[in-house]
Design a protein that fits this description.
Elements: H1 4-16, H2 19-25, H3 32-46, E1 51-55, E2 58-61, H4 63-88, E3 93-99, H5 101-118, E4 122-128, H6 134-138, E5 144-147, E6 156-171, E7 192-195, H7 200-212, E8 219-222, H8 225-233, E9 239-243, E10 254-260, E11 265-273, H9 280-289, E12 306-307
Parallel strand pairs: 3-4, 3-5, 7-8
Antiparallel strand pairs: 1-2, 5-11, 6-9, 6-10, 6-11, 10-12
């Protein structure tokens, strides 16, 4: 295998056009014979001459030398910049993010827009997930997980990046409510549209129904908030959903009433694997959001005892 210091000697001779000038250009002390030895050993490894001597201290690349020089030149020319970027922690690259559907639709676009303005050298690979998987962080398959994360395993750090507000959602037409402001108790004889039982949000919904004394008459489940809103708009039932904007979902055929009180706001976190040295790409992404608080644990159930009407 070719040794890097021999390639460096070859590169500097090619740039300087001679061994003496190359030795003088090295960033560390080395003699002209030392440089010549590096190139000679490299030629022996490759079995090809890399330079033709044109004078006392002037050489030119052979055809094989030009091919090798074209390959190594971008590396050695770009190395000082990479060294400065690494030292300053400001290098770009690919940032991989797992996020829930609502976060991808409403939280991520302005966040990524700001990141692109600040750091155009960072590319983002965004993947939608239904359930956050911390093992993907542990195994290096993703860099950030963005979702409602009530419990964080050991070795995971997080920062708050958004909020889910809780809304009762009912059909605008054909639900027999008249002018009444819907509450969970007043809706107890209506069908309830829940998240799929495999999702953690489903248990939160059922806990809220139990706390309000509203027994669910029938249960229809869906895998996403927007699917639930579609079922509600079709008159198939009512639901209790999170939404990443305080004004609530602006969904045709649906009336949304924001819930007030304890446990009606849930933090959305960006979580990453704890490392000895901070990841510059993650740091850049979080800086693009501006300052946020760092929560520890969030497990309060939905509490719908206080509410106020919001226009849909």
């Amino acid at each position: 295998m070719i040794q890097l210091h021999r390639l460096e000697g070859f590169y500097r001779v090619a740039v300087a056009g001679g061994y003496t000038r190359a030795a003088q250009a090295f960033p560390y002390p080395i003699s002209q014979p030392g440089v010549h030895q590096q190139v000679s050993k490299l030629e022996a490894e490759l079995g090809k001459k890399l330079f033709d001597r044109q004078g006392r201290d002037r050489v030119e690349l052979t055809a094989a030398g030009r091919r090798l020089f074209d390959f190594v030149k971008p590396f050695f020319e770009g190395l000082p910049l990479v060294e400065r970027e690494i030292g300053a922690g400001s290098f770009g690259g690919l940032l991989r993010i797992d996020a829930a559907a609502l976060e991808i639709r409403y939280l991520m676009p302005p966040w990524l827009q700001q990141l692109r303005r600040q750091r155009p050298d960072i590319d983002v690979d965004l993947e939608e997930v239904q359930v956050p998987d911390f093992s993907r962080l542990a195994h290096g398959k993703t860099d950030l997980v963005v979702d409602y994360l009530p419990q964080l395993p050991a070795g995971i750090e997080a920062q708050r990046v958004g909020t889910h507000y809780i809304f009762i959602v009912v059909p605008k037409q054909g639900f027999g409510l008249g002018s009444r402001t819907p509450s969970l108790r007043s809706l107890r004889d209506k069908p309830f549209v829940s998240f799929h039982p495999s999702l953690p949000h489903c248990q939160l919904q059922l806990n809220a129904l139990g706390a309000s004394g509203a027994e669910r008459r029938k249960l229809l489940s869906a895998s996403s908030t927007e699917a639930i809103l579609g079922f509600v708009a079709a008159g198939l039932g009512y639901s209790l959903v999170p939404w990443p904007e305080a004004r609530g979902p602006q969904f045709r055929g649906v009336t949304a009433i924001r819930q007030q009180g304890r446990g009606t706001e849930f933090p959305i976190l960006a979580a990453w694997r704890k490392r000895a040295e901070p990841d510059p790409l993650i740091s850049a992404a979080l800086q693009a959001l501006g300052p946020r608080s760092l929560p520890t644990s969030f497990s309060a159930p939905f509490d719908s005892r206080r509410q106020r009407r919001r226009p849909a």
